[in-house]
Amino acid sequence: MELGDYIAAVPDFPVPGVAFKDITPLLAEPEAFRRSVDGLLELCRDWPVDRIAAFDARGFLWGAPMAYLRGVPLVPVRKTGRLPRATVGESYQGEYAPETVEIHDDAVTAGDSVLLVDDVIATGGAMRAGVRLVERLGGTVVGCVSVVRLTGLGAAEQLSGYRVASLREYRAPRG
User: Fold this and answer.
1) Count of domains in the chain?
2) What residues does the Phosphoribosyltransferase domain cover (predicted)?
3) What is the pLDDT of residues 80-124, one digit of tens each?
4) Is the CB of residue 138 less than 8 Å from the CB of residue 108?
5) DSSP single-letter state for residue 142
6) If exposure means fewest CB atoms within 10 Å of the residue's CB, which of 49, 53, 109, 141 is most exposed?
7) Average pLDDT over residues 61-74
8) Cβ 172 vs Cβ 153: under 8 Å
9) What are phi and psi of 79, to 5 degrees?
10) pLDDT value at position 18?
11) 2 inside domain
12) For residue 110, what is the domain's CATH number?
């Protein structure tokens, strides 16, 4: 089974010139989804992980089963204003607009090894914001994993010095 067969390119979404990578066909096929979760777990099999931090909202789809199967806590990385207790936040320039993500201020403790998980790494801005949040709370980022990575949009620079792994890579068209 080739996971790329379950990732659809949607031209000119959400803006002209963007070829959006749609993972919903992968979610609609249970075996493909299972293989994607297993594949992400395999990418980081030997990494020491105390917690998995997953991004709102599609990153939750992979982060939650990964945390369950690894037997570690899940840290939700949410868009600003969505967590009910005290938080720390980090702003960044998203693909289309400025964004802010937050985690609870007690979600990571000093010395924790944290794996960051999302569906797609594009510019690397969200992932870099997650790195900053984990490190601000005293944790160590052991790596950043995603189902899809779009190359050529700056993520390599944003995440320089961190392990980054994905199941599928696509070269983003130059704009």
Assistant:
1) 1
2) 50-148
3) 999 999 999 999 988 778 999 999 999 999 999 999 999 999 999
4) yes
5) E
6) 109
7) 98
8) yes
9) -65, 155
10) 84
11) no
12) 3.40.50.2020
Q: What count of residues does the chain have?
A: 175
The pair of structure tokens assigned to 73 is: 């806590």
Q: Is residue 31 part of a domain?
A: no
- Around Cβ 15, how many Cβ atoms within 10 Å? 10
Task: State both tokens at 172.
Answer: 């983003």
Q: What DSSP character marks residue 97?
A: S
Evaluate whether 150 touches 121 at the Cβ level (below 8 Å). yes
Which position among 29, 70, 82, 95 bears the catalytic label? Answer: 95
- Distance set, CA 64 to CA 5, 117, 122, 130, 171 (Å): 24, 10, 21, 16, 28
Does the active-site annotation cover 135? no
pLDDT of 14 reads 87
Which of the 8 DSSP states describes residue 32?
H
Alpha-carbon distance 155 to 63, whole Å?
Answer: 20
Full domain range(s) for residue 159: 46-171
- pLDDT over 60 (residue 174): no
Active-site choice (58, 78, 128, 149) = 58
Residue 27's pLDDT band, with cuts at 50, 70 and 90, is: very high
Task: Please state whether 28 falls in left (phi above 0), alpha (psi between -120 and 50) or beta.
Answer: alpha
What does the block give as tokens for 156? 């390599």
Q: Is residue 67 part of a domain?
A: yes
Q: Is 102 a catalytic residue?
A: no
Per-residue confidence (pLDDT) for residue 96, from 0 to 100:
79
